[in-house]
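Progress note, sequence design subtask.
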């Protein structure tokens, strides 16, 4: 069974379909030694190269899988690290075809819900800013938080990469240096939650993502463990998708 080349390459996580279509126009992709063009179809036996490098584990039919991983602090979301630090990929089940793609990232010192999928097109949709998928975090802050600060954080703060704000802030209780808030953002910008709090002169001492879209972190899932979402949960996560 053949499929369009941009669909296959997107599904294995090389980029979005739009990016890959651009690579095709630029002549960066070849199939069986010949330049590929937009609209070409391929099968699993074809040898595809991008910028001269062969694409490994090519498959034209990918069953969509999504894992929910409870990331502990002290792990990175890259596949390898020159410093030899642990990565989230160290604990995931092996795939016969394809690879796990992280849906966004969590910082080294951030814990909580991390989604991973073997389906590149789904990962790109979930990360695309235009979809404004809600991300909820539990935050422990060190410093005095005033009503004026909370008002400013809801209204918007100018950061180095543009205006940002919390769409919702809930006081989760605690006293002194153990005061917690639940905050909601709709963007996946780098260190966004920490930077927003730091803009008000307070420090985030603990940060955990507890929800991504319609999927919440189960209380029974321990740090360093993963669970696989069923098709019903995948549909909740991405209602517009027809992936099976």
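Output:
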């Amino acid at each position: 069974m053949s499929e369009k080349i941009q669909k296959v390459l997107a599904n294995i996580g090389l980029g979005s379909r739009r990016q890959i279509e651009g690579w095709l126009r630029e002549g960066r992709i070849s199939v069986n030694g010949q330049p590929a063009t937009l609209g070409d179809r391929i099968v699993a036996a074809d040898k595809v190269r991008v910028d001269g490098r062969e694409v490994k584990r090519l498959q034209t039919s990918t069953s969509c899988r999504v894992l929910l991983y409870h990331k502990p602090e002290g792990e990175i979301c890259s596949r390898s690290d020159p410093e030899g630090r642990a990565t989230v990929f160290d604990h995931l089940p092996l795939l016969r075809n394809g690879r796990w793609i992280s849906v966004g990232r969590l910082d080294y010192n951030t814990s909580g819900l991390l989604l991973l999928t073997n389906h590149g097109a789904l990962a790109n949709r979930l990360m695309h800013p235009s979809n404004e998928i809600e991300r909820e975090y539990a935050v422990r802050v060190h410093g005095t938080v005033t009503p004026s600060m909370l008002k400013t954080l809801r209204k918007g703060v100018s950061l180095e990469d543009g205006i940002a704000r919390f769409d919702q802030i809930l006081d989760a209780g605690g006293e002194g240096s153990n005061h917690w808030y639940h905050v909601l953002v709709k963007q996946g910008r780098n260190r966004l939650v920490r930077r927003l709090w730091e803009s008000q002169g307070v420090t985030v001492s603990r940060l955990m993502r507890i929800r991504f879209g319609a999927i919440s972190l189960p209380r029974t899932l321990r740090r360093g463990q993963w669970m696989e979402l069923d098709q019903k949960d995948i549909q909740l996560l991405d209602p517009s998708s027809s992936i099976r």
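The mean pLDDT is 89. Work on this subtask will continue into the next period as scheduled.
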